[in-house]
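Re: export button greyed out
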Amino acid sequence: MLPEPDDRSDKSERDTPVLRVRGLSKTFAGTKALNDVCFDLHRGEVLAIVGQNGSGKSTLVKVLAGVHQADPGGEIDVNAVGRGARREQLHFIHQDLGLIEPLSTTENLDLSRRLGLRDLLPGRRRGEHDRAALLVRRAGAVIDVRSPIARLSPAERTIVALARAMDGWPRPDGVLVLDEPTASFHSSETERLFDAIRHVRDSGAGVLFISHRLDEIRAIADRVIVLRDGRSVLEVPVDEADDATLVRAMVGGEISGRSERDASTFGDVRLKVTDLAGMRLAGVSLSVQAGEILGVSGVLGSGREELGSLLFGSVRRRSGSVEVDGKTLRGGDVADAIGTGMGLVPANRAQQGAVLRMNVRENLTLAGLQSVQRRFGWIPRRTERAEATRWARAVDLRPADPERPMAQLSGGNQQKVVLAKWLRTMPNVLVLDEPTAGVDVGAKVSIYELIRDAASQGTAVVISSSDTKELAEFCDRVVVLNGGRVVGELSGASLTEEAVLHMSFDVSAGAVAAS
Amino acid sequence: MSTGVQPRTTENPETPLPPTSLTGPPQGPSRWDRTKRQASFRNVSALYILAAMFVIFSLWEPHTFLTVLTWRLLLDNQAISAIVAVAVVVPLSAGVVDLALGTEVGMGAIVVAWLIADKSLSVAVAVTLTLVIGAAIGVVVAGLIVKARIGSFIVTLAMSSVLLALIEWISGGEPINVVSSSFHNIATGELFGVVYPVYFAAGVSLIVWYVLEHSSFGRRVYATGANPEASRLAGVRTSRIILGATVTCGVLSAFAGLLTASQLSTGDPSISANFLLPAVAAAFLGSTQFKRGRFNVAGTLVAVAVLAIGVEGLELGGAPEWTPDLFNGVVLLLAVGFAQMQQSPTRRTAAITRIIRSIGGSSKSEAS
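Workaround output, generated via the alternate export path:
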């Protein structure tokens, strides 16, 4: 039932890779998300895969997991037994661990087990707890298996997920794939998970570790593969690559030219943020001028992801102030922020950005209904349709049909509608959180153009994004957050993707100079 | 982008034109396509069912079904049911299930009778006070949902129990007779041979229809029901919308209650149970009509008609007593099931889905 530590004296057995990937490609609507990826994963090895957003990391995981079908010709071979064995031998720990929070560790581990009639007997309980504790101990951790998952720390939850993934392996040399497992961790906890991973590795499994944190890769991985634009561009043992090499491989040789805009054309300060603090942000101050596009960078957990909602007031701020055109916004009051001329394009489009069950017209006018309504709140159908059609065309919606239900649009087109909703209100300050996530290349270009147009008409723009390339190429200035604070600011000639990455990953300044 | 491209679009994606330079006819499906879509069986199935029933019952029992008296009675009897059904459409559209609907009606009936008979208030004052109490119930419901963050399913379930107790307390479990011809006249007076409640129902329906479908308040109600979080982030004050919806429902159901009391000249403490299910059934059945999954007034009225005519026809044909209940249940299941089965790629059933989920998940959200 449980994997026993492998006898690794057999040299030939050790040399057969547990996972062999050859010529793996995946094409989405003409774009190659994965392009001829090849690698071997050996027994007792941790192989890290790094790359920026959109480099193909998550596509690779999804193809391995069978969520996406790879293009024909590719080959995924587990333990040299061919495709048939994939399901039983590949085990995944996704970012969403899939644990049920109110249930205990034991109960969660039981869920994946076939239960018989005997399990209805009252005496089974203790045995189940013992078994769960044993599974967790195999992962090198001690956790109270009786307390609900909700009480465990993020790292402990991941370890439970790991124990569950390893439950019932037919042989110890399976493959474990961890997809950015530490994204929600506090750094002090990372080591606990790494201990567990080392345990798994030492029992003979091959571990594929997907991450974007270079320090973690150094701590846990034996080898590293860098993905860029769907290709594997670098494959080296971890000790043989310094951070600068890895970053350069991730970014690519060429840094495309940025359209430089003249800072002297910017107007007065429109957005002034002083000592803003929330759950993760711990005192951030910044100001944005009219016409300026400010980028905000930072890895997950840096506080970047909550900046937008704190500025907008959709999440109540702990302290600090946000001023738009000299007027201080009431915290936690979205309507006040909108009234003062702020707009927010949230990161979670389906949940927060768009009302998917309404049509394009209704979404477009939702934020500025006052402008289309007459007396007694009457919305003349004709006026509203004309307005919606105008904006559908202005943002190049495809098809430009305002009556089409939102859910029928592609992600990029939905995002255009969400953006148009705010552009319609002529915002003084526009905050965008991951504006191009899940957006195809064509729509991306349109969205950039629209944002730039708004800026040139005097809107102060804040773009918070995990896409450092986007930030470096598109923004006038970029601030980098780390640990809830601003750790650096880049503009003009010093604003390059490499520099943003270095600051975000907290690599010493020396490496920047060296590159 | 893979699904979104249509040959009609000609603009270059890289150079969107400024909005001011854009004029011209709106793109999208033609008027004929839209008409065709609107007349499709899926969209207006209840109208076809209505027509079919009319033909069947006319052939089956021409001497009873096709008489003026039958139809006048039908209209008279259904006017109050229609008001209650339209009342519940408003909170349902905002994503609030109102299970206290029946007792809100019962409360209206008892309170108005008690005020007139026991407290000797004038009819006008009693009616006004009754409506105010209806509104107050709506305020309490909204407060519990918005401020205490209890799921509407639980709030209104509890509220219905509380109201039931109040009704018993006020009435002592006995009907309260009202001897007032001017009060009796409210629900039984006639204009052009049709009783007043029919006009009230028409007026209420017209107003609610206008507000929901042609006003900014209605737009915000639907948005709140479909995605409260996105609506809030678009500046909709969702708490106020929910308050508005529950108060509207409270006032309208109190109004329906006082009409019932007026009709019978009695405040009957036992009527509550008769109103909830038919009204909610009509609203859900109505949501499958015309608006593809959105609760709406027109669909609800058609649904009230379908249920009433079906039951009436069966009763005239001599069907046993239990047929109406059976008929109501089966028609609702068939209509909603049919709409679900033929769902287009988009599902505008957000409010319904959310409500169903909230029923399943309400205990969970309380635990956490």
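The radius of gyration of chain A is 25 Å. The button fix ships in the next patch.
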